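Holo model, pyridoxal-5'-phosphate. Inputs:
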Amino acid sequence: MKFDVSRQRIEAASAIVAGGVNSAFRSGIRPHPLVFAEADGAILTDVDGNRLVDYFLGMGPMLLGHRPAPVVDAVRAQLDRSILVAGQTDLEYAAARLLTELVPSAELVRFSVSGSEAVQAALRVARAATGRSTVLKFEGHYHGWFDNVMWSVSPTLEEAGPAEAPVPVASSLGQQPAVDLAVLPWNDADLVRQRLARGDVAAVIMEPVMFNNAGILPLPGYLEAVREACDASGTLLIFDEVITGFRIGPGGAQQEFGVTPDLTVLGKALANGFPVAAVVGKRSYMDLVADRVVHGGTYNTQSVAMAATLATLTEIASGRPYETIGPVGTALMEGLRKEFADAGVEVRIVGYPAVFQVRFGTVRPRDYREALQADRAAYVDFAADLLHHGVRVLPRGTWFVSTSHGDHVDATLSA
Ligand code: PLP
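Output:
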Protein backbone atom coordinates (compact mmCIF):
# COMPACT_ATOMS: atom_id res chain seq x y z
CA MET A 1 0.00 0.00 0.00
CA LYS A 2 1.28 3.44 -0.88
CA PHE A 3 1.15 5.76 2.04
CA ASP A 4 0.21 9.28 1.11
CA VAL A 5 0.55 11.95 3.78
CA SER A 6 0.36 15.69 3.33
CA ARG A 7 3.17 16.75 5.60
CA GLN A 8 2.36 20.45 5.61
CA ARG A 9 -1.01 19.83 7.15
CA ILE A 10 0.45 17.58 9.79
CA GLU A 11 3.22 20.00 10.64
CA ALA A 12 0.64 22.73 11.03
CA ALA A 13 -1.38 20.51 13.33
CA SER A 14 1.59 19.56 15.48
CA ALA A 15 2.47 23.22 15.91
CA ILE A 16 -0.78 23.95 17.76
CA VAL A 17 -1.36 20.73 19.72
CA ALA A 18 1.37 20.29 22.30
CA GLY A 19 3.07 17.00 21.68
CA GLY A 20 0.19 15.98 19.41
CA VAL A 21 1.53 14.10 16.45
CA ASN A 22 4.88 13.35 18.01
CA SER A 23 3.56 11.92 21.22
CA ALA A 24 0.98 9.86 19.37
CA PHE A 25 3.72 8.18 17.42
CA ARG A 26 6.59 8.10 19.82
CA SER A 27 5.77 4.46 20.38
CA GLY A 28 7.18 3.59 17.03
CA ILE A 29 5.47 5.02 13.99
CA ARG A 30 7.04 8.46 14.00
CA PRO A 31 8.28 8.35 10.41
CA HIS A 32 4.65 7.98 9.34
CA PRO A 33 2.61 10.64 11.12
CA LEU A 34 -1.12 10.15 10.75
CA VAL A 35 -4.01 12.49 11.36
CA PHE A 36 -7.25 10.58 11.42
CA ALA A 37 -10.53 11.81 10.01
CA GLU A 38 -12.91 8.87 10.42
CA ALA A 39 -13.22 5.44 11.93
CA ASP A 40 -15.83 2.83 11.17
CA GLY A 41 -15.92 -0.87 12.02
CA ALA A 42 -12.32 -2.03 11.73
CA ILE A 43 -11.20 0.73 9.37
CA LEU A 44 -9.48 4.04 10.13
CA THR A 45 -9.30 6.73 7.47
CA ASP A 46 -6.82 9.59 7.72
CA VAL A 47 -7.18 13.12 6.38
CA ASP A 48 -5.46 12.09 3.16
CA GLY A 49 -7.80 9.20 2.51
CA ASN A 50 -5.42 6.41 3.58
CA ARG A 51 -7.30 3.44 4.99
CA LEU A 52 -5.90 1.27 7.74
CA VAL A 53 -7.13 -1.85 9.48
CA ASP A 54 -7.14 -0.91 13.16
CA TYR A 55 -5.57 -3.60 15.29
CA PHE A 56 -4.71 -0.84 17.74
CA LEU A 57 -8.38 -0.88 18.87
CA GLY A 58 -7.97 2.79 19.73
CA MET A 59 -5.48 1.88 22.50
CA GLY A 60 -7.72 -0.96 23.55
CA PRO A 61 -11.31 0.16 24.15
CA MET A 62 -12.92 -0.49 20.76
CA LEU A 63 -13.76 -4.13 21.39
CA LEU A 64 -17.01 -3.85 19.40
CA GLY A 65 -15.28 -1.92 16.62
CA HIS A 66 -15.60 1.73 15.73
CA ARG A 67 -19.08 3.21 15.92
CA PRO A 68 -20.97 -0.02 16.54
CA ALA A 69 -24.70 0.43 15.95
CA PRO A 70 -25.94 -0.44 19.48
CA VAL A 71 -23.62 2.11 21.09
CA VAL A 72 -24.24 4.82 18.49
CA ASP A 73 -28.02 4.37 18.80
CA ALA A 74 -27.93 4.48 22.60
CA VAL A 75 -25.81 7.62 22.60
CA ARG A 76 -28.05 9.37 20.06
CA ALA A 77 -31.12 8.53 22.12
CA GLN A 78 -29.46 9.73 25.31
CA LEU A 79 -28.80 13.16 23.81
CA ASP A 80 -32.58 13.63 23.85
CA ARG A 81 -32.74 12.71 27.56
CA SER A 82 -29.73 14.32 29.30
CA ILE A 83 -26.02 14.99 28.91
CA LEU A 84 -24.94 15.42 32.51
CA VAL A 85 -26.98 15.70 35.68
CA ALA A 86 -24.44 15.55 38.54
CA GLY A 87 -26.31 12.79 40.26
CA GLN A 88 -27.21 9.17 39.84
CA THR A 89 -29.16 8.02 36.83
CA ASP A 90 -31.20 4.99 35.87
CA LEU A 91 -28.44 4.21 33.37
CA GLU A 92 -25.81 4.04 36.09
CA TYR A 93 -27.83 1.54 38.11
CA ALA A 94 -28.55 -0.60 35.05
CA ALA A 95 -24.89 -0.62 33.96
CA ALA A 96 -23.73 -1.42 37.51
CA ARG A 97 -26.21 -4.28 37.75
CA LEU A 98 -24.90 -5.79 34.53
CA LEU A 99 -21.35 -5.50 35.82
CA THR A 100 -22.25 -7.40 38.96
CA GLU A 101 -23.66 -10.16 36.78
CA LEU A 102 -20.62 -10.32 34.51
CA VAL A 103 -17.58 -9.84 36.76
CA PRO A 104 -17.20 -12.38 39.60
CA SER A 105 -15.69 -9.96 42.15
CA ALA A 106 -18.26 -7.21 41.52
CA GLU A 107 -20.70 -6.82 44.41
CA LEU A 108 -20.64 -3.02 44.37
CA VAL A 109 -19.53 -0.70 41.58
CA ARG A 110 -18.07 2.80 41.53
CA PHE A 111 -17.63 4.45 38.16
CA SER A 112 -14.95 6.95 37.24
CA VAL A 113 -13.63 8.57 34.10
CA SER A 114 -10.27 6.86 33.56
CA GLY A 115 -8.51 3.68 34.53
CA SER A 116 -5.81 5.70 36.26
CA GLU A 117 -8.36 7.24 38.61
CA ALA A 118 -10.05 3.93 39.26
CA VAL A 119 -6.68 2.41 40.24
CA GLN A 120 -6.18 5.24 42.70
CA ALA A 121 -9.65 4.63 44.13
CA ALA A 122 -8.87 0.93 44.59
CA LEU A 123 -5.64 1.75 46.40
CA ARG A 124 -7.39 4.23 48.65
CA VAL A 125 -10.01 1.65 49.54
CA ALA A 126 -7.32 -0.92 50.33
CA ARG A 127 -5.42 1.48 52.50
CA ALA A 128 -8.56 2.60 54.33
CA ALA A 129 -9.58 -1.04 54.86
CA THR A 130 -6.23 -2.18 56.25
CA GLY A 131 -4.76 0.94 57.83
CA ARG A 132 -1.51 0.11 56.02
CA SER A 133 0.22 2.22 53.39
CA THR A 134 2.49 -0.13 51.42
CA VAL A 135 1.38 -1.29 47.97
CA LEU A 136 3.02 -4.23 46.23
CA LYS A 137 3.15 -4.19 42.44
CA PHE A 138 5.05 -6.19 39.83
CA GLU A 139 7.88 -5.26 37.57
CA GLY A 140 6.67 -4.25 34.11
CA HIS A 141 2.98 -3.98 35.07
CA TYR A 142 1.30 -0.68 34.24
CA HIS A 143 -1.43 0.87 36.34
CA GLY A 144 -2.05 4.24 34.74
CA TRP A 145 -0.29 7.50 34.31
CA PHE A 146 -0.30 8.20 38.05
CA ASP A 147 2.38 5.53 38.08
CA ASN A 148 4.84 8.03 36.72
CA VAL A 149 3.83 10.84 39.01
CA MET A 150 3.32 9.11 42.31
CA TRP A 151 5.23 5.94 42.25
CA SER A 152 8.36 6.94 40.33
CA VAL A 153 8.42 3.42 39.01
CA SER A 154 11.37 3.64 36.64
CA PRO A 155 13.86 4.94 39.21
CA THR A 156 12.49 2.36 41.60
CA LEU A 157 13.27 -0.47 39.27
CA GLU A 158 16.70 0.85 38.41
CA GLU A 159 17.63 1.13 42.05
CA ALA A 160 15.87 -1.90 43.33
CA GLY A 161 16.90 -4.33 40.63
CA PRO A 162 14.94 -7.52 40.41
CA ALA A 163 14.60 -7.84 44.20
CA GLU A 164 11.89 -6.05 46.14
CA ALA A 165 12.63 -2.78 47.88
CA PRO A 166 9.99 -0.49 49.35
CA VAL A 167 10.36 3.05 48.11
CA PRO A 168 8.74 5.97 49.89
CA VAL A 169 7.13 8.37 47.45
CA ALA A 170 6.82 12.05 48.14
CA SER A 171 3.42 12.71 46.55
CA SER A 172 0.33 12.35 48.65
CA LEU A 173 -2.77 10.33 47.82
CA GLY A 174 -5.41 12.91 48.53
CA GLN A 175 -5.91 13.11 52.27
CA GLN A 176 -3.86 10.03 52.94
CA PRO A 177 -0.13 9.82 53.60
CA ALA A 178 2.26 8.91 50.80
CA VAL A 179 2.29 5.37 49.52
CA ASP A 180 5.24 3.06 50.04
CA LEU A 181 5.78 0.99 46.96
CA ALA A 182 7.24 -2.48 46.81
CA VAL A 183 8.09 -3.98 43.43
CA LEU A 184 8.58 -7.68 42.81
CA PRO A 185 9.30 -9.70 39.69
CA TRP A 186 6.21 -11.28 38.17
CA ASN A 187 5.37 -14.97 38.52
CA ASP A 188 7.43 -15.81 41.60
CA ALA A 189 4.97 -16.85 44.33
CA ASP A 190 7.64 -17.44 47.01
CA LEU A 191 8.78 -13.83 46.88
CA VAL A 192 5.18 -12.65 47.31
CA ARG A 193 4.66 -14.98 50.29
CA GLN A 194 7.85 -13.76 51.95
CA ARG A 195 7.03 -10.10 51.44
CA LEU A 196 3.43 -10.36 52.63
CA ALA A 197 4.45 -12.30 55.72
CA ARG A 198 5.78 -9.03 57.17
CA GLY A 199 2.12 -7.99 57.51
CA ASP A 200 2.51 -4.38 56.38
CA VAL A 201 1.16 -4.48 52.81
CA ALA A 202 -2.27 -2.94 52.19
CA ALA A 203 -2.73 -4.35 48.69
CA VAL A 204 -1.17 -6.41 45.97
CA ILE A 205 -2.06 -4.95 42.59
CA MET A 206 -1.42 -6.78 39.34
CA GLU A 207 -2.45 -7.17 35.75
CA PRO A 208 -3.59 -10.81 36.01
CA VAL A 209 -2.20 -11.28 32.53
CA MET A 210 0.78 -9.02 32.08
CA PHE A 211 -0.50 -7.30 28.98
CA ASN A 212 1.43 -4.09 29.15
CA ASN A 213 4.58 -6.05 28.55
CA ALA A 214 4.30 -8.96 26.16
CA GLY A 215 1.05 -10.61 27.25
CA ILE A 216 2.64 -12.99 29.73
CA LEU A 217 0.23 -15.41 31.37
CA PRO A 218 0.42 -16.16 35.07
CA LEU A 219 2.13 -19.48 35.71
CA PRO A 220 -0.26 -22.28 36.72
CA GLY A 221 -1.08 -21.87 40.41
CA TYR A 222 0.48 -18.41 40.68
CA LEU A 223 -2.74 -16.42 41.04
CA GLU A 224 -4.05 -18.96 43.57
CA ALA A 225 -0.82 -18.70 45.57
CA VAL A 226 -0.98 -14.89 45.64
CA ARG A 227 -4.64 -15.08 46.68
CA GLU A 228 -3.71 -17.41 49.57
CA ALA A 229 -0.80 -15.23 50.67
CA CYS A 230 -3.11 -12.19 50.68
CA ASP A 231 -5.68 -14.01 52.80
CA ALA A 232 -3.03 -15.21 55.24
CA SER A 233 -1.64 -11.69 55.76
CA GLY A 234 -4.83 -9.59 55.67
CA THR A 235 -3.78 -7.98 52.38
CA LEU A 236 -6.28 -7.01 49.68
CA LEU A 237 -5.81 -8.45 46.20
CA ILE A 238 -6.53 -6.00 43.38
CA PHE A 239 -6.76 -7.14 39.78
CA ASP A 240 -6.19 -4.33 37.33
CA GLU A 241 -8.34 -5.63 34.47
CA VAL A 242 -8.35 -2.39 32.51
CA ILE A 243 -6.96 -4.32 29.55
CA THR A 244 -7.96 -7.90 30.32
CA GLY A 245 -11.53 -7.09 31.35
CA PHE A 246 -14.03 -8.16 28.65
CA ARG A 247 -11.22 -8.87 26.19
CA ILE A 248 -10.04 -12.15 27.69
CA GLY A 249 -13.71 -12.99 28.05
CA PRO A 250 -16.90 -11.42 29.43
CA GLY A 251 -15.84 -11.93 33.06
CA GLY A 252 -12.19 -11.01 32.51
CA ALA A 253 -9.11 -12.87 33.67
CA GLN A 254 -10.69 -13.59 37.06
CA GLN A 255 -13.37 -15.67 35.41
CA GLU A 256 -10.93 -17.33 33.03
CA PHE A 257 -8.54 -18.36 35.84
CA GLY A 258 -11.12 -18.85 38.59
CA VAL A 259 -9.39 -16.58 41.12
CA THR A 260 -11.50 -13.79 42.62
CA PRO A 261 -9.76 -10.62 43.81
CA ASP A 262 -11.12 -8.32 46.51
CA LEU A 263 -11.22 -5.34 44.16
CA THR A 264 -11.08 -5.07 40.38
CA VAL A 265 -10.31 -2.10 38.19
CA LEU A 266 -12.07 -1.97 34.82
CA GLY A 267 -11.79 0.51 31.94
CA LYS A 268 -11.16 0.58 28.21
CA ALA A 269 -13.63 -1.91 26.64
CA LEU A 270 -16.16 -1.10 29.39
CA ALA A 271 -17.70 1.72 27.30
CA ASN A 272 -16.29 1.02 23.84
CA GLY A 273 -14.49 4.33 23.51
CA PHE A 274 -16.31 6.56 25.97
CA PRO A 275 -14.33 7.69 29.01
CA VAL A 276 -15.62 5.33 31.67
CA ALA A 277 -13.75 3.16 34.15
CA ALA A 278 -14.80 1.53 37.40
CA VAL A 279 -13.57 0.00 40.59
CA VAL A 280 -15.71 -2.93 41.66
CA GLY A 281 -15.39 -5.33 44.54
CA LYS A 282 -16.61 -6.89 47.71
CA ARG A 283 -19.35 -4.98 49.46
CA SER A 284 -17.49 -4.74 52.76
CA TYR A 285 -14.59 -2.94 51.11
CA MET A 286 -16.56 -0.94 48.58
CA ASP A 287 -18.69 0.55 51.35
CA LEU A 288 -15.56 2.46 52.32
CA VAL A 289 -15.90 4.48 49.12
CA ALA A 290 -18.95 6.11 50.59
CA ASP A 291 -17.75 6.26 54.20
CA ARG A 292 -14.08 7.17 54.17
CA VAL A 293 -12.70 7.43 50.65
CA VAL A 294 -13.33 10.53 48.60
CA HIS A 295 -13.60 9.52 44.98
CA GLY A 296 -15.49 11.72 42.62
CA GLY A 297 -15.18 14.13 39.76
CA THR A 298 -17.19 16.47 37.59
CA TYR A 299 -17.60 13.98 34.78
CA ASN A 300 -18.13 10.75 36.72
CA THR A 301 -21.18 8.91 35.35
CA GLN A 302 -21.82 11.54 32.69
CA SER A 303 -25.11 10.45 31.14
CA VAL A 304 -23.99 9.98 27.53
CA ALA A 305 -20.97 7.96 28.62
CA MET A 306 -23.20 5.83 30.84
CA ALA A 307 -25.57 5.21 27.92
CA ALA A 308 -22.56 3.96 25.97
CA THR A 309 -21.52 1.80 28.94
CA LEU A 310 -24.93 0.22 29.27
CA ALA A 311 -25.14 -0.47 25.52
CA THR A 312 -21.62 -1.95 25.48
CA LEU A 313 -22.23 -4.15 28.51
CA THR A 314 -25.53 -5.31 27.05
CA GLU A 315 -23.69 -6.42 23.91
CA ILE A 316 -20.97 -8.10 25.95
CA ALA A 317 -23.53 -9.89 28.13
CA SER A 318 -25.30 -11.19 25.01
CA GLY A 319 -22.13 -13.07 24.07
CA ARG A 320 -22.44 -11.87 20.46
CA PRO A 321 -19.04 -10.12 20.25
CA TYR A 322 -17.25 -13.31 21.27
CA GLU A 323 -19.05 -15.35 18.63
CA THR A 324 -17.42 -13.11 16.01
CA ILE A 325 -14.09 -12.43 17.68
CA GLY A 326 -13.37 -16.08 18.48
CA PRO A 327 -13.40 -17.59 14.96
CA VAL A 328 -11.93 -14.48 13.30
CA GLY A 329 -9.11 -14.42 15.85
CA THR A 330 -8.37 -18.10 15.37
CA ALA A 331 -8.30 -17.75 11.57
CA LEU A 332 -6.07 -14.71 11.85
CA MET A 333 -3.66 -16.49 14.15
CA GLU A 334 -3.43 -19.49 11.89
CA GLY A 335 -2.73 -17.30 8.86
CA LEU A 336 -0.11 -15.30 10.70
CA ARG A 337 1.61 -18.38 12.07
CA LYS A 338 1.91 -19.77 8.56
CA GLU A 339 3.10 -16.46 7.16
CA PHE A 340 5.70 -15.88 9.87
CA ALA A 341 6.79 -19.47 10.26
CA ASP A 342 10.32 -18.84 8.95
CA ALA A 343 10.75 -15.30 10.19
CA GLY A 344 11.50 -15.94 13.87
CA VAL A 345 8.21 -14.40 14.89
CA GLU A 346 6.16 -16.20 17.48
CA VAL A 347 2.42 -15.58 17.21
CA ARG A 348 0.24 -16.47 20.12
CA ILE A 349 -3.13 -15.72 21.67
CA VAL A 350 -3.96 -14.82 25.23
CA GLY A 351 -7.72 -14.99 25.53
CA TYR A 352 -9.30 -13.16 22.63
CA PRO A 353 -6.77 -10.44 21.83
CA ALA A 354 -3.92 -11.47 19.60
CA VAL A 355 -0.36 -11.07 20.73
CA PHE A 356 2.29 -11.05 18.07
CA GLN A 357 5.45 -11.93 19.83
CA VAL A 358 8.64 -10.95 18.11
CA ARG A 359 11.81 -12.43 19.43
CA PHE A 360 15.04 -10.61 18.72
CA GLY A 361 17.55 -12.98 20.20
CA THR A 362 18.67 -14.40 23.47
CA VAL A 363 19.82 -12.10 26.22
CA ARG A 364 20.66 -12.91 29.81
CA PRO A 365 18.09 -11.48 32.23
CA ARG A 366 20.56 -9.11 33.82
CA ASP A 367 21.20 -7.41 30.48
CA TYR A 368 17.60 -6.66 29.69
CA ARG A 369 17.71 -2.92 30.06
CA GLU A 370 20.53 -2.65 27.54
CA ALA A 371 18.75 -5.09 25.29
CA LEU A 372 15.65 -2.95 25.47
CA GLN A 373 17.49 -0.07 23.88
CA ALA A 374 19.04 -2.25 21.20
CA ASP A 375 15.84 -4.05 20.29
CA ARG A 376 13.50 -1.10 20.27
CA ALA A 377 14.52 -0.12 16.75
CA ALA A 378 13.77 -3.60 15.45
CA TYR A 379 10.23 -3.76 16.71
CA VAL A 380 9.58 -0.18 15.69
CA ASP A 381 10.60 -1.10 12.14
CA PHE A 382 8.26 -4.07 12.26
CA ALA A 383 5.32 -1.87 13.29
CA ALA A 384 6.17 0.66 10.57
CA ASP A 385 6.32 -2.14 8.01
CA LEU A 386 2.86 -3.34 8.99
CA LEU A 387 1.59 0.21 8.66
CA HIS A 388 2.77 0.24 5.06
CA HIS A 389 0.68 -2.86 4.53
CA GLY A 390 -2.36 -1.01 5.82
CA VAL A 391 -2.38 -2.50 9.30
CA ARG A 392 -2.08 -0.43 12.44
CA VAL A 393 -0.89 -2.33 15.49
CA LEU A 394 -0.13 -1.29 19.00
CA PRO A 395 3.61 -1.64 19.47
CA ARG A 396 3.41 -2.74 23.03
CA GLY A 397 5.60 -4.23 25.65
CA THR A 398 8.97 -3.08 24.49
CA TRP A 399 10.59 -5.65 26.68
CA PHE A 400 9.96 -8.38 29.07
CA VAL A 401 12.21 -10.74 30.90
CA SER A 402 11.28 -13.52 33.23
CA THR A 403 13.30 -16.45 34.38
CA SER A 404 10.02 -18.34 34.32
CA HIS A 405 9.76 -17.87 30.59
CA GLY A 406 13.33 -18.50 29.53
CA ASP A 407 16.31 -16.20 29.40
CA HIS A 408 15.25 -13.97 26.61
CA VAL A 409 13.95 -10.53 25.88
CA ASP A 410 10.77 -10.19 23.88
CA ALA A 411 9.53 -7.21 21.99
CA THR A 412 5.85 -7.51 21.36
CA LEU A 413 3.25 -6.08 19.10
CA SER A 414 -0.19 -6.75 20.35
CA ALA A 415 -3.45 -6.24 18.56
N1 PLP B 1 -4.27 -0.11 34.02
C1 PLP B 1 -3.90 -0.74 32.90
C2 PLP B 1 -3.60 -2.20 32.97
C3 PLP B 1 -3.79 -0.06 31.69
O1 PLP B 1 -3.39 -0.68 30.59
C4 PLP B 1 -4.12 1.33 31.66
C5 PLP B 1 -4.01 2.10 30.42
O2 PLP B 1 -3.45 1.67 29.43
C6 PLP B 1 -4.51 1.94 32.84
C7 PLP B 1 -4.59 1.20 34.00
C8 PLP B 1 -4.86 3.38 32.86
O3 PLP B 1 -6.07 3.63 32.23
P1 PLP B 1 -6.40 5.07 31.63
O4 PLP B 1 -5.47 5.29 30.47
O5 PLP B 1 -7.85 5.00 31.24
O6 PLP B 1 -6.17 6.08 32.71
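Residues 21-31, 148-177, 360-374, 397-415 have pLDDT under 50 and may be disordered. The longest strand covers residues 201-206.
Archived with the compound record.
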